[in-house]
Fold this protein.
Amino acid sequence: MMLTTTVAQSLQRAARALAAHSGSPQLDAEVLLCTVLGVARSALIVRGTEPLDDHARQAYDDLIERRADGVPVAYLTGIREFWSLPLKVTPAVLVPRPETELLVELALGLLPPGEARSVLDLGTGSGAIALAIASERARARVSGVDLSPQALSIARENSCALGLEVDWRLGYWFEAVPSERYDVIVANPPYVATGDPALESLASEPALALSSGPTGFEALEAIIDAAPHHLESGGWLLLEHGRDQHPRVARMLERRGFGAIASHHDFSDRPRVTAGTYSVCHKERS
């Protein structure tokens, strides 16, 4: 016979179990218990002395065990908030990171409100970036591209749920938009080298969205090389990358003829996005 445990006791036990597996064990424990009970986090305090029934306790224990095995909280709850938008996420898509909101912020700065500009989001995944931009710029023509049919299915579901219109395309980078040009192109491509030990902690997420080759620059280089053929004159390319990759990304942009190149820091003060503008009068540099 199982001993009766309260909500508060279950939270304490779960947080201890996750202490060695998460950077935010208490938060993870609370979010997962809210998922089981179907309540807001604020309700956990009020219900702290209430007992958990056997069904809820077993469901909670299963979630905590999976979290300890490295499964992201977003996959366990099925929801991730990004730019204040609730997004459905599954193991078919990368979990949207808070630092990627910098990419959205910079893109919005290049898209004057009320103007009908065009935006392309490469490797859209759950649609987080494209949908965030669409939510802020009603007149913008936003497109999202992904190589994974499963990812695009999730993006479409999010688009419908939020009532936001995005043109979803299936294909490898610009192959999905062969003859189209845009005012702003944004991308959070796979940029982790295949041998990077960091991939071990990301094993639950789609490898296709994390790494594209042994250097980590393969996808970045492919996008930079082709982007001039898909930008309007004076258009911008914004690329998310790893914290140590900005010097090489900037050099690649410069060699391809981009100007006004600058790297921007995320909330942790790490260089996270490098941007450049391209004009038809620019000459490609050797």
The first strand starts at residue 79 and ends at 82.
